[in-house]
């Protein structure tokens, strides 16, 4: 190619990119110029994944309550520590007894995953002794709402989760209860509470036709009893594991947990993933150690280190900037093949929490995680333009008094303009 022709083509390309970038900035600025945004706090950062060029920035270095966008950091942490398959149990065999301790695996007896690896393993041993004292964090995260103990999205955190740490209730010809052991703890009346605060007494009216999930209050005795019930044999409790190297039993593919966490915004799985990751560091289960390790090592280069206090984003103590979100999303994009990464994230108009928003024309163009609390709505992830470019973005809205649907409409306008013009 002649130098003159090459130079002309390069100049045309650069001018076209500059024009597209200005169009993105102009359109986005016009949306934010509306009085709609006068009484709320909004932060945005949009980055070209290929060139690392910043297309748009607004309050991108300021801290926001991220809600479930926190799960992006949890996903990153899990990918750093966990293997391709989930460590389901740690165990030692001594004489005729199998000694077992939990790793925090949230999939054991979980109705969604239907994985029987750990259950079949335990069925194969006559004498089993459980060590259940290796989890050192509180059952609830810092800053969680105390009144939410009765709602499906705030189960307790444990070393040995069972059934997703919830009781599942459904009316057909009679009340169906899973786990069945808790059947006698269900009172068939309509009541303002779903469960008593300090005990496992549940309320589920006879006329209800929906399926209800209610977190149960966990303790050592209940975990042991539920396991005895499903295994059909008595178990013992151990004060400690025997000395010696522990074996690890692996179960289902890790990506199945990641997809469930991101698509359904599953708080229980998010919390347990950090606990599960800590099982690869030591025998003491502590999600805080994982957060500290990631921030001190893999994410030591963040321009605005976050306040990161849980795995799910339930806590309003969490504080993240759009820039730190984009930095982590960029690292994920560099470390994980794009097809696998986009499969883990919900797709706009197709799956998970994005099923009803940001539809493609016809193919999905948004792969992102939402985060919603009262007066908080954030979306962070990846946008694929019509020209084939992948963009990385974080769009965070705090302290608004509008309907969240109005927030989403304006974001969708910006996203579609970027998709069609950049």
From TrEMBL:
Residues making up the signal peptide according to the UniProt record: 1-20
UniProt protein name: D-alanyl-D-alanine carboxypeptidase
Enzyme Commission designation: 3.4.16.4
Source domain of life: Bacteria
SUPFAM superfamilies, per the entry: beta-lactamase/transpeptidase-like (SSF56601)
One MF annotation (Gene Ontology) recorded for this entry: serine-type D-Ala-D-Ala carboxypeptidase activity
Enzyme class label: hydrolase
Swiss-Prot/TrEMBL keywords: Carboxypeptidase, Hydrolase, Protease, Signal
Keyword Protease annotated: yes
A UniProt-annotated Pfam family: Peptidase_S13
Cited InterPro entries: Beta-lactam/transpept-like, Peptidase_S13
Family affiliation: Belongs to the peptidase S13 family.
